C-alpha cells in the first residue's frame, strides 16, 4: 500500500466508528492482521467490538517479565470471557542477562534502552511478517499520539498501523466498559489509570495527568512501541 493510499484511507476513516474501521481492516488484511494489547481498557473495548463482529484475529501482548500480577490475572479472565488465547511475545534478552550486560535496574538509569530491549525490538521481530497491526491508542493520551492517524504507515516496523479508537475519549472508553459490563484491571480503581511495568508505574496523585505515574522522575512519556520513527524515539 502506497503512502498516498494510506493518507487517503486515514482521511476517509476520520469520522468512522471503531466497528467500521475494524471491519475494513479484517477484510483488507486478514490473515496477516494482528492486534496488540497491554490489557488496558481501550484494548478490551476493541476485543468486544471484534467479538460482536464475529471476527477472530491473533491478539498479542509483550511480556517484559516485569508486568503486574494483576495484568496476568486479567489476561486469564479475558481469555475466558472472549474465548481466545493471547499470543505472548517476550524479549530475546532475559532479565538476568540484561543485568549482566547493562547493570542492575537498567530502567532506573536508562529506561529508553530498557524499553528498546524489552518492548520495541521484540515488537519489531514479531511484526516482521505481518501486513497490519491494530492498536488501542487514543489521541488524548500523549502529545505524540495526538499526531497519529486512524490508518498510518509505521516506518519503524514497516507495517500498516490501524488505530480504531484514536478519536475516543477516556470517558467514552469507560462508558463502553460499564455499559457492556466488561472486566478490567482492578488497579485502575486504585490510582493506576495507566499501567506499564512494575518498576516504572506508580499511582497518580489527585490532579495529575492519567499517565503521570509512568516513568516518574524521567521526561519519558512513551515506551517507544507507538513511535513511528527512530527520530521520535531518540529526540
Ligand atoms: S517500562 Fe520500565 S521496566 Fe518496562 S521495559 Fe520500559 S523501562 Fe524497562
In short:
The chain is α/β, with parallel strands linked by helices. Helices cover 41% and strands 9% of the residues.
CATH architectural arrangement? 3-Layer(aba) Sandwich
Structural class: alpha/beta
Helical content stands at 40-55%
The general outline is globular
* Distance between the amino and carboxyl termini: 28 Å
Overall structural domain count: 1
The tally of beta strands, per DSSP, is 6
Secondary-structure map:
Layout: H1 3-12, H2 18-29, E1 33-36, H3 41-53, E2 59-62, H4 69-82, E3 87-89, H5 95-102, H6 106-109, H7 111-127, E4 132-134, H8 143-146, E5 151-154, E6 159-162, H9 170-179, H10 230-234
Parallel strand pairs: 1-2, 1-4, 2-3, 4-6
Antiparallel strand pairs: 5-6
Helix pairs in contact: 2-3, 3-9
Bound molecules: iron/sulfur cluster.
The site of iron/sulfur cluster (SF4) has 13 residues, from helix 7.
Amino acid at each position: 500500500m502506497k503512502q498516498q493510499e494510506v493518507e487517503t484511507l486515514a482521511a476517509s476513516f476520520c469520522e468512522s466508528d471503531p466497528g467500521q474501521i475494524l471491519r475494513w481492516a479484517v477484510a483488507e488484511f486478514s490473515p496477516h492482521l494482528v492486534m496488540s494489547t497491554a490489557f488496558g481498557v481501550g484494548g478490551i473495548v476493541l476485543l468486544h467490538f471484534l467479538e460482536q463482529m464475529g471476527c477472530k484475529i491473533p491478539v498479542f501482548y509483550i511480556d517484559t517479565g516485569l508486568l503486574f500480577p494483576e495484568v496476568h490475572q486479567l489476561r486469564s479472565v479475558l481469555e475466558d470471557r472472549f474465548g481466545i488465547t493471547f499470543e505472548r511475545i517476550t524479549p530475546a534478552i532475559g532479565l538476568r542477562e540484561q543485568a549482566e550486560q547493562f547493570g542492575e535496574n537498567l530502567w532506573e538509569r536508562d529506561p529508553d534502552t530498557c524499553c528498546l530491549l524489552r518492548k520495541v525490538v521484540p515488537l519489531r521481530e514479531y511484526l516482521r511478517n505481518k501486513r497490519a497491526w491494530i492498536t488501542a491508542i487514543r489521541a488524548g493520551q500523549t502529545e505524540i499520539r495526538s499526531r497519529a492517524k486512524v490508518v498510518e504507515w509505521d516506518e519503524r516496523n514497516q507495517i500498516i498501523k490501524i488505530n480504531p479508537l484514536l478519536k475516543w475519549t477516556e470517558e467514552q472508553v469507560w462508558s463502553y466498559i460499564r455499559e457492556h459490563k466488561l472486566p478490567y484491571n482492578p488497579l485502575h480503581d486504585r490510582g493506576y489509570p495507566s499501567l506499564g511495568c512494575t518498576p516504572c508505574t506508580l499511582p497518580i496523585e489527585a490532579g495529575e495527568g492519567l499517565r503521570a505515574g509512568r516513568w516518574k522522575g524521567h521526561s519519558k512519556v512513551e515506551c517507544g512501541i507507538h513511535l513511528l520513527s527512530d527520530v521520535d524515539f531518540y529526540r
